[in-house]
Design a protein that fits this description.
By secondary structure, this protein is α+β, with helices and mostly antiparallel strands. Helix content is 32%, strand content 20%. The protein has 9 helices and 19 strands. The protein has a 6-stranded mixed sheet with strand order 4-3-2-1-5-6, with helices on both faces. It has a 3-stranded antiparallel sheet with strand order 7-10-11. The protein has a 3-stranded antiparallel sheet with strand order 8-9-12, covered by helices on one side. A hairpin with a 2-residue loop joins strand 10 and strand 11. The longest helix is centred in the middle third of the chain and has 22 residues.
Amino acid sequence: MSDVYAVRRARLRDRYAAAGSTAALVSRPANVRYLAGGAPPGAVLLLGPGEDTLLCPRTAEGAGTEGGGRVDERLRISVLPTASGDPAVAAAGLLVASAAESLAVEEHHLTVSRHRAIGSVAPRLALTDLAGAVEQQRIVKDEGEIACLRIAAEIADQALGELLESILVGRTERHLALELERRLIDHGADGPAFPTSVATGPHSGRPGHRPSDRRVEEGDFLFVGLGADYRGYRCLIGRTFVIGTSPADWQIELYELVFAAQRAGREGLVPGMGYRDVDRASRQPLEAAGYGEGLAPRTGHGVGLEIEEDPQLAPAAMGKLDACVPVTVGPGVHLPGRGGVRIDDTLVVRPEADGGPELLTITTKELLAL
């Protein structure tokens, strides 16, 4: 794995060098994890000139790493001598004695005060913006990353499948969410990829619903959205079910509509397809049915070391899909006072010659009555 991280750092080095910078400071935790193999809390990564160095605060010594990763053994590791030290400022200090003339920093992550502190320690060092260079590099995943996402999806599928075999009526949304998160860990997850969502009755289909003390009732729509964190990589699955022996006609019609919209989005996941075109394919059937007003601002997004990454599958999104990009597709409709339907999957963009998009979350999308 050391070679993987070295190659990633080399790619980033080529990019910032081409922009005129002689060194780069990576401070966003997920980006540090991506380039270093592990990210002790508060650590920053200094790239060139000379030896690449992972600088850690004194408080992080022995604290483990974000996502459970192991720091690349090729990196020099420097632990600050005092607990009050700032690794980002210390990194700038290391460059004072070097021949570095400019330093690219992640301005979107550094606070104004840290940015000023770096400038005061190394006043002759020109500070430039690394911008989203690492995030852009993270979009296309290697097969090792996809393997972790695949296992995360299997864990989420297992946890959801077991829940569906249990008695649900009378239990609260909050209780079900806690049980799902316990099952994720039981099956090998490091934890949930995000706070688990369970929404019943009038809450179902509502984006971002946080579990409440409402109890599951006969005739409810039940939406479950969960994901597993496995070795730092995160997936998402969302399914809607009906509680009771037979769904009402309006529930069947709404479910079939959202399912058709989700299928249209999934089928658009081929290399070269525009981000906005995937969103449009999924959004169009819902708008044609008169539900355009309350739709979420995007159909899906990338996943990886964070549960929400680029690309964004949204109406104004610029760019086109590449192969080996994992994304979610999850349209939904919420009817105020009645509830609604959401269906979410995690998939990997693959060429048609390789079978098209790879579905990672495989729990059935049939409308089940539980």
